[in-house]
Protein 1
Amino acid sequence: MKTSQIKSVAASLVCTAATLVAHAGADNRAPEVPFEIAVGDNNKVHFHGYAIGVQIYTWNGTDWGNAVPRATLFDDDGNVVATHFGTPNGPAWRSNSGSEVVGKLPPKRATVDRTAIPWLLLAANPDLTHGPGILGETTFIHRVNTVGGLAPAVAGTTIGQVVEVPYAADYFFYRQSND
């Protein structure tokens, strides 16, 4: 699927979900999200990236376990601005400017589309958020407008089998505001 097609599908999902959403305060850049993953008014969006990547699942003999992300984040002009990956401490993002943020687990979740991975709200781990770049001082991260990424519906064939499932999402990064 082309990036433009994925963005089109994601945009239609947002419109479909609009009746169930809350807006994050007066921040006109914040996405509309289900109430259970809303960010408080004292946090404002400071960075947005559009991600294309994979959710990596490993068969443990019973189920596919938790996904590990690997994605590239792009700005509105299509420039690569950050990478997204898993760490032992949780999901992480590293900007080209060198700043990094790690999200605390478990995240708050909302299923908006049953054919895609859930939308998430992760609190940033302040001990693992650093750098003077665009991700420094992040307080929360939203994963929204998800397309794909679900674990396979069929059982694995061997323990340790790895499957990479394509996905796309928007990530919004928040900082505390004095407003």
Note: The helical segments are 3-17.
Protein 2
Amino acid sequence: MQDIFQKTLQKNINFNGTGLHSGLTTKVNIIPSESNTGIVFKRVDHAENNIITANYKNVSSAKLCTTLENFSGIKVSTVEHLMAAFYITGIDNALVEIDNEEIPIMDGSSKNFIELINNAGLKIQNSKRKFLKIIEKVEIKENQKSISIEPSNLGFDVNFQINYANETIGKQKNHVQFYDSNLEEVYASRTFCLFEDIEKIKKAGLAKGGSLENAVVVKNKKILNKGGLRNSKEFVNHKILDLAGDFLLSGYRIIGSVKCEQGGHLFTNMFLKELFKKTSSFVELDLENLELIKKEFKTPENKIAINA
């Protein structure tokens, strides 16, 4: 069942942790905010021009993480796991104060964020949520990568496949229905890498804060982390988690069915840009009830406005 009204937090959330790529310790304060303000980041270590809106148009880099940047060049990176936690828990509006450039990686998944949000509680607001209903298929392809979205009468679901030469990761696929699935295996799935890629990543100035405490590391046929994997599809489930977080940068709850193969942060951002170019492929709507989703939208009736 889709929730009609927007939500924010009942109270502030405070935490700190290490940035995966920067290796720096960062303090974060998440504050409840008013309806229709969306997710906004504020770099409190800067005195001015420190507001960064969580929007796909503000993605300045998607190399191994999603980085947002405002018009003054102020950045916040590795936002995807926190954005996914907002998506899964139903947070539409929040102000995220951060005293450094990177959101802490925590355990490499969204699990810690979701626990903090659940402990703080949710507040239902008076304004209705912004939904985007897909009415025509949109697809992009690039070499072995592809991503598409098609109409759905139920909500948001993701069918994702990864193909790795490494035997331990291999070919994995999963289909997750965000509207009625138990999402614990998705939000608890950690970021991962191959052992042989670590040195190359670090030479690029990334993963300075990476460890077995916040990432799954695969060496040949072995998982180096104590306890192994959290679930049998942890690799592909983490990719689905990333996609959910990046999709919330659309500014909407999307009603559509996604298929993705070999995708990642950059490819998802490319796809969102393509989707919003094709204004005939979607309609923006105020959701009165679940039955409204099931109607075919060919003209802007029933309080539906085509988003141009």
Note: Residues 176 and 182 are 9 Å apart (CA to CA).
Protein 3
Amino acid sequence: MTAILEAQDLVKRYPVGDGQVDALRGVSLAVERGEFVAIMGASGSGKSTLLHLLGGLDKPTAGQVVIDGVNISTLDDEQATLTRRDKTGFVFQFFNLIPLLTVRENVALPFLIRGESVHERRQRVDELLAMVGLEGKADHAPDQLSAGEQQRVALARALATEPALLLADEPTGNLDYTSGGEILDLLWRSCVQLGQTIVLVTHEARAAAYADRVLVVRDGQILDQIELGRRPDHDPGELLTRLAVLGL
């Protein structure tokens, strides 16, 4: 297999008063094409900071990140923006939908940003809406949808341009149990059926159990790696046992 994402010796340091805090302390990892990787850790462990660096939303103090052959750590702001646009999709805890746009228009937004014809991309948008089960609500406004439905729109939008890498930051954190399960199922299906590469940040074992492997982060470092394999039952039992051994 070929690594679609590589990070080497990532350090992220923030100034605090007269001193500094190391949010990340020399993190290295690789994610293979088509792999589903979860990053787990307690609040303040550095997992969201790591995701932001992996997606080019922030720059490391030291180290480098390579996405699909592009070293994003060396890019200027404009180049980094274009690389994020072309190579990554993001799903966040809060859905970040445009309230004045319809569901279909929100999903089509990445094509508009890239200067592509939205009309010519309508078939792709409709296919994505069908995949997430919202084909009947394409002309609704976001505020006419439930929280789970809004997150499904956000996921369809993130997948619109077939990104090399999909990054999800606590995508179930604002959802009820059932809706959260539906989003996790959709993420897993996009990996298995579409070959989508996914990196998911979560503090929930239930969510992490959907991944092929789990990276456990503590105090800005990768504490352990837990291999789960691709299991359709997503049973978190084994993961919970391993986490207990680590004191988590």
Note: The chain is about 35% helix and 25% strand.
